[in-house]
Write a structure and sequence with these properties.
The complex is a heterodimer of chains A (263) and B (374). Chain A is of the alpha/beta class and 263 residues long. Chain A has two domains: 170 residues, 3-Layer(aba) Sandwich (Rossmann fold), CATH 3.40.50; 77 residues, no CATH class. Chain A is 40% helix and 22% strand. Chain A is built from eleven helices and ten strands. A six-stranded mixed β-sheet of chain A has the order 6-7-8-3-9-10, with helices on both faces. In chain A, strands 2-1-4-5 form a four-stranded antiparallel β-sheet, with helices on one face. The longest helix of chain A is centred in the middle third of the chain and has 19 residues. Chain B is mainly alpha-helical. Chain B contains 14 helices and four strands. Chain B has two domains: 42 residues; 300 residues, ABC transporter involved in vitamin B12 uptake, BtuC. In chain B, the strands form two sheets. In chain B, strands 1-4 form a two-stranded antiparallel sheet. A two-stranded antiparallel sheet of chain B has the order 2-3. The chains are: A alpha/beta (263), B mainly alpha (374).
């Protein structure tokens, strides 16, 4: 049984079919890339899965349970975390606090426990901090030490992307949805992040869906590639199969002018 | 965004550029005029006060010290009240003008509790317990009223343009005033006199301080420490700050945004309840309209400190208390203006106007969420 599966997923905005009858599945431990030209519906696909938009029709099955129509917080709690194309951190919270907020859905102590400082509350706060430091440590020395207490807005662009991934990791998900994780990074950082995506699966056991425009990254990380165009899945398979598929080339480059027919 | 910023500005016609330069210089001239006038008033006022003091006229040294301490106490009360304005603005982006009435409800119901305790003798036999009970009653009342206002009046308007909850809050303010006026009568109610233990004054570092004012300052400091701890060191506090910065992402982190907003109102209400208890120690008399002026002053304090900034609200409150308490006598008194202490409200709002002109983001800087910063 696939870990995450969509059946006949549909989402329209006004007259625009952002997603049409999309069937998608990913097995536990797989890395699948979703590619397609701009406006193909990739980010809409993530928004629908993560609960920001409700699908118009179709099912989203996570571990066999239908999660369509659930709120984003319920879906995060179920075990799906995501990052954003345009990084969306809490800029005035510190690096450590950004990661700690990710633990919110895994913890439970409320305001009264905090006021009374119950043992459970103190234990939980310590656990939250430990977990947050652990996920920040995944990125080497970039987000640790003196960085912990810096507000997120002072970070470099690449570090913000890393912090956003760390925050998603802190929610202890089973599936990670990464929306263009290498956008705006330099070639060296891109190579590093490509390796990191592999490590996320191998060391941390996440199942990963990644939207990506950089074909080197797609080639480097994916077990399987899904191609969307105008909200429709036009191809699926290994990078080799997809990159030679005529429909895909047409979607990206357009159809060669039919000179014979024009005469 | 950067692409737009980097685009060179279109060249301007020479005469247009000239006109623009001229316009800016007029505004500058006006602002400099205000600055210079303010400095002249302050310098001459200070000079006048000091020469008066040296000549042995006006207030004695003890008189000035008393004035400063009582201004600090009142400022601490404004600060606690300002927190409610600032926190709600930080999370929802509108000014909750009903917050003054949340405070008033605490003073009114606190009065009933105090009166009952007084009649049963607890007020004199066990003063600390009595004050503690009044504090708890005031806090619970204010918290309940704040949460009810949010549930009934603001929750249905979530997502509406900000002007709409703002106007609703003014409506809620009148509603609460006249509800309390109708229930408890429109006359003034006077709290029983402060228990004997805090009726006198204590000597701190050679300065005599009235015990009620000292109590108020101590309670304010304790409340601030508690709030700071709650906001920065606990899970719920982090959730509150996350919601203030970005509600959508906070939701994605598993934070229940709606419940967190209620929590913000509850914490702001509890602080208003503490301020209500302070009012009962400082001024004793309350009526259904008692929330209006402190509310507006606290709003001023919140703007003074930088709206959305929790530490700024407290600092702004203390500063405003000092401005309006000490300022009239120190500066206007020095200029020989008669009846200056009646001008304290005017001084408080002049402070607001000056801050809005010269430092619109407040003295300590505002803290706004990403969506408010656009």
């Amino acid at each position: 049984m696939p870990l995450l599966e969509t059946r006949g997923l549909n989402k329209t905005f006004g007259g625009v079919h952002a997603i049409q009858d999309l069937d998608f599945e990913i097995e536990e431990g797989e890395i699948v890339s979703v590619i397609g030209p701009n406006g193909a519906g990739k980010t809409s696909f993530f928004n629908v899965i993560s609960g920001i938009f409700e699908p118009d029709a179709g099912q989203i099955l996570f571990d066999g349970l239908d999660i369509s129509g659930h709120t984003p917080s319920q879906i995060t709690k179920a075990g799906i975390a995501r990052t954003f194309q345009n990084v969306r951190l809490f800029p005035n919270l510190t690096v450590l606090e950004n990661a700690m907020v990710g633990q919110h859905c895994r913890t439970s102590s409320g305001i009264f426990a905090a006021v009374l400082r119950t043992p459970k509350f103190r234990r939980e706060e310590m656990m939250i901090e430990k977990k947050a430091k652990d996920v920040l440590g995944f990125f080497g020395t970039r987000l640790v030490g003196y960085r912990f207490d810096q507000p997120a807005f002072v970070l470099s662009y690449a570090n913000r992307r890393r912090l956003e991934i760390a925050r998603a990791m802190a929610t202890e998900p089973r599936v990670l949805l990464l929306d263009e994780p290498t956008a705006g990074m330099n070639p060296r950082e891109t190579i590093e992040l490509t390796e990191l995506i592999g490590k996320l699966r191998d060391e941390r056991g996440f199942t990963i869906v990644v939207i990506e425009h950089d074909m080197k990254v797609v080639q480097g990380v994916s077990d399987r590639v899904v191609v969307l165009d105008h909200g429709v899945k036009i191809a699926e398979g290994s990078y080799q199969e997809v990159s030679t598929n005529e429909d895909v080339i047409e979607a990206y480059l357009g159809r060669p002018a039919d000179l014979e027919g024009a005469k | 965004m950067t692409a737009i910023d980097e685009r060179p500005a279109p060249p301007e016609a020479p005469e247009e550029r000239e006109r623009k330069a001229l316009r800016i210089s007029w505004i500058d001239l006006f602002l400099w005029g205000i600055r210079i006038a303010a400095i002249i008033v302050i310098v001459f006022g200070l000079f006048g006060s000091i020469s008066k003091f040296v000549a042995g006229e006006g207030l004695t040294a003890q008189g000035w010290r008393d004035l400063i301490v009582s201004s600090l106490a009142q400022g601490a009360m404004y600060g606690l009240l300002a927190l409610g304005y600032s926190m709600v603005y930080g999370v929802l982006g509108f000014i909750n003008f009903a917050h003054g009435e949340v405070f008033m409800s605490g003073t009114m119901v606190g009065f009933i509790a105090a009166n009952w305790l007084f009649e049963n003798g607890v007020w004199t036999s066990n003063p600390f317990l009595a004050m503690f009970l009044v504090l708890i009653v005031a806090m619970i009342t204010s918290t309940l009223v704040a949460v009810l206002v949010e549930r009934i009046a603001y929750k249905p308007l979530r997502g509406a343009p900000r002007l709409i909850p703002l106007i609703t809050s003014i409506g809620m303010s009148f509603f609460l005033q006249y509800t309390f006026g109708g229930l408890f009568g429109v006359g003034f109610n006077t709290y029983p006199p402060p228990p004997e233990v805090i009726a006198g004054s204590v000597n701190i570092f050679g300065i005599d301080v009235r015990s009620t004012q000292l109590t108020v300052i101590i309670i304010a400091i304790l409340s601030m420490i508690g709030l700071w701890y709650f906001v920065t060191r606990t899970r719920s506090g982090r959730a509150m700050r996350a919601v203030a910065e970005d509600k959508e992402i906070a939701g994605l982190m598993g934070i229940n945004v709606d419940r967190t907003i209620v929590l913000v109102f509850a914490v702001g209400g509890a602080m208003a309840g503490v301020a209500a208890m302070m009012w009962s120690l400082l001024f004793r008399s309350v009526n259904f309209f008692a929330g209006f002026l402190p509310g507006v002053k606290a709003f001023t304090a919140a703007v003074l400190g930088g709206i959305g900034n929790i530490a700024g609200a407290m600092g702004g409150g203390v500063l405003l208390g000092l401005f309006e308490g000490v300022g009239p006598l120190l500066i206007l008194g020095g200029l020989g203006i008669p009846g200056v202490s009646q001008l304290k409200d005017a001084v408080a709002f002049i402070a607001l106007v000056l801050v809005l002109i010269f430092r619109p983001s407040g003295l300590f800087g505002e803290r706004l969420g990403s969506e408010d910063r656009v």
